[in-house]
Amino acid sequence: MRNIFKRLTANEYRSKGDTGNPEKHPLIGAGDFQAGREKTPAVEVKAVSHCYGAGENRRQVLFDNHLTIHPGEVVTMTGPSGSGKTTLLTLIGTLRSLQEGSITVYGRATKGLSAAEAVKIRRKIGFIFQTHNLFDSLTAYENVKLATTLADWSGREVHGAVVDILAAVGLAERCSYKPGKLSVGQRQRVAIARALINRPKLILADEPTAALDKDSGGLIVEILREMANAENCAVLIVTHDNRVLQVADRIVHLVDGQISSMPNMDRCLLQAVVE
Ligand SMILES: Nc1ncnc2c1ncn2[C@@H]1O[C@H](COP(=O)(O)OP(=O)(O)OP(=O)(O)O)[C@@H](O)[C@H]1O
Ligand SMILES: [Mg+2]
């Protein structure tokens, strides 16, 4: 397997200066590191409940959820349709306002954030959602490059990094293609490249392999696992895909708006639960 993130860390990313140096990462304080692992959880969800609608139409969809994810951990979340997985993911990603309970991302509380503070946290998160939201008028290369404007890149580094990340998701030959000329799976891979280009410290992925064939789905799973290992970033993936479940450190199950965490259960058992 191509070890893309190790390669990028050694080359294009070196001049970004934050490799292995916690002080350079704005969301992580130097004191949080211990032997290369942060003590502060990447995500801490406590007593989170959520309702949609108002008045008579108000309906509670999340009930008293607790979840902790550490840097370097790959956690998958499964559960029936409508159980609240996307709602919880968007709350963690600060894409939805938190109503009840608390969520921290690398120690930062996400409740009552100003728009500017929320943007600052979101810049450290790589989002991969079911709908890819690519710009139709931009090429694959330009779509990924656009994301680099959110981070501190110099022009020269950007070109190599964008080309490399597109190659890593198997799209080296498609850099100049616009979304309309790409398959659904290829578009999803562009979206994944875009989510990873800024080396997020947290990746939130909602069914990232659902639109992909076996080979490209497997590639994405490997990349996410490698990203967690090489970059010590935390990954939360909503999925029913067995390939993803196999690389997960932990699987949590969300049923009727409530997580039943099974932290120390053997993976075979977990898989049996999901199946
Ligand atoms: N914007 C919204 N307004 C009102 N209700 C919503 C909204 N978004 C989701 N819901 C409801 O909240 C519940 C949880 O939805 P959510 O999308 O989080 O589920 P999910 O587990 O991600 O489902 P799926 O596996 O189908 O994606 C569902 O009953 C859904 O109908
Ligand atoms: Mg969903």
In short:
With 275 residues, the chain is an alpha/beta fold.
Overall description:
- By secondary structure, the chain is α/β, with parallel strands linked by helices.
- It has a single domain (4-14, 41-274), classed as P-loop containing nucleotide triphosphate hydrolases (Rossmann fold), CATH 3.40.50.
- It is 33% helix and 23% strand.
- It has helices at 4-10, 85-92, 115-122, 140-148, 155-168, 184-196, 214-231, 242-247, 267-274; strands at residues 33-34, 37-38, 43-52, 59-69, 74-78, 100-105, 108-109, 125-128, 202-206, 234-238, 250-255, 258-261.
- The strands form three sheets. Strands 8-9-10-5-11-12 form a six-stranded mixed β-sheet, sandwiched between helices. Strands 4-3-6-7 form a four-stranded antiparallel β-sheet, covered by helices on one side. Strands 1-2 form a two-stranded antiparallel sheet.
- A hairpin with a 6-residue loop joins strand 3 (43-52) and strand 4.
- Mean pLDDT is 82; it is low at 5-36.
- Magnesium ion (MG) is lined by residues 85-86, 206.
- Adenosine-5'-triphosphate is lined by residues 52-53, 61, 79, 81-87.
The Rg value, from CA coordinates, equals 18 Å
The CATH architecture designation is 3-Layer(aba) Sandwich
N→C terminal distance: 28 Å
Helical content (DSSP H or I, runs of 4+): 25-40%
The number of domains: 1
**CATH class group:** Alpha Beta
Number of helices: 9
